[in-house]
Amino acid sequence: MAVTPIAPDAPDAGVDAGFAAGLDVAQAAAQAGALNAALAAALTTASRELPYPDGRPGRFLDAGAVTELAQRFGLAPRRVEIAALAAAICPLRYARNLRAFTLAEQARLLGSKAALIGLGGLGGGLLENLVRAGVGVIHAADGDVFEETNLNRQLLSRLDALGRPKAALAAERAAAVNPSVEFVATAAFLDRAGMETLLTDAQVAVDALGGLKDRGALVAAAAGLGLPLVTGAVAGYTAIVATVLPGAPSPADLFGGGGTGPAAEDVLGCPSPAVMAVAALQAAEVIRLLAGRPPALAGKALLIDLETMRFDTVAL
Amino acid sequence: MSDTVTVRALATLAPYAPPGGVASVGPGETAGELADRLGLEADAIGAVLVNGNPAAMETPLSPGDVVSFVPPITGG
């Protein structure tokens, strides 16, 4: 079952619409130029000057103005935000990203796509971070429904949503927090072919799976498409985060193990602080990559022990 | 330096850590022999690290090494 996309894409400017109306290339370009000029003027009118907390002058566009301009110009909201950022106008919702991301990096995030496999503990925390950061397109999949044992750690789970699909709750959350994000969630467990479809046109694949069963297929799907894969795993207060570049070793090769006993997480559980910490660390790496920065964890794994608050980096 | 190594036993392996996280090490003793001495079963160990680098059960230990035993970790 596919959950309805929240914000269907729209033409970038007027060019596609121009072709659809049977205009020639020059007419379409002229129409696009006029639209861009009109949008630029509207962005200036709808935004306001305010200082950043460090005193720098800034110009900001609030969420209501983004919605209004998107409707007026027939654009997806994230396209309005990208146009604003190009004019050095910061959508107010990203104002406190300050210099963590430049305006150009913020625009790049809004123009990017992440593919997220899993909407449970790691996936819920990842989604929250990526949606708030303004990752423009997120396609996600999880075939599970929420159950009571998820409530200890899974951000998207709620007592009043037990039995409902994780994909549906994820779509509601994304829309409620940042409607500029074009979020599509598939309520299904994906095989390798399904993962490849989900990963198509993404710049980063994100592993929020539990267990080893499907991780091999995801590593193969990401490698086949030449995508970096940001992965994480938790057992008790011990956790691992890593970025797997195509063809490079995965932490599952080192830490997955071939033991015959019960998995460590089946003995120790997955407590919320460990799950949320790993989701946040994975999100930081995903956002780095989508912003155009080099990965911080390529070829290595971050080994985390919250019991002792020790963080070690291990070469894979 | 005394002939000891620091042992970090993570997650489900934590109960096998020696007192104070320090174990004696004999000449040429390997990570696997140390694991045996600590009561760690080989199939419970996902990875062995020596001084933060991936190692094998056959890796010989030297005094002052930091040996980490990590079980398979795959939850989420």
Automatic annotation (TrEMBL), chain A:
Domain spans labelled THIF-type NAD/FAD binding fold: 94-315
One Pfam short name: ThiF
SUPFAM superfamilies given in the database record: Activating enzymes of the ubiquitin-like proteins
Gene Ontology molecular function, alphabetical: tRNA threonylcarbamoyladenosine dehydratase; ubiquitin-like modifier activating enzyme activity
Protein name: HesA/MoeB/ThiF family protein
InterPro entries named among the record's database cross-references: ThiF/MoeB/HesA, ThiF_NAD_FAD-bd, Ubiquitin-activating_enz
GO BP term, example: cyclic threonylcarbamoyladenosine biosynthetic process
UniProtKB/TrEMBL annotation, chain B:
Domain of life: Bacteria
Pfam families xrefs: ThiS (PF02597)
UniProt-recorded name of the protein: TGS domain-containing protein
Protein species of origin: Solidesulfovibrio aerotolerans
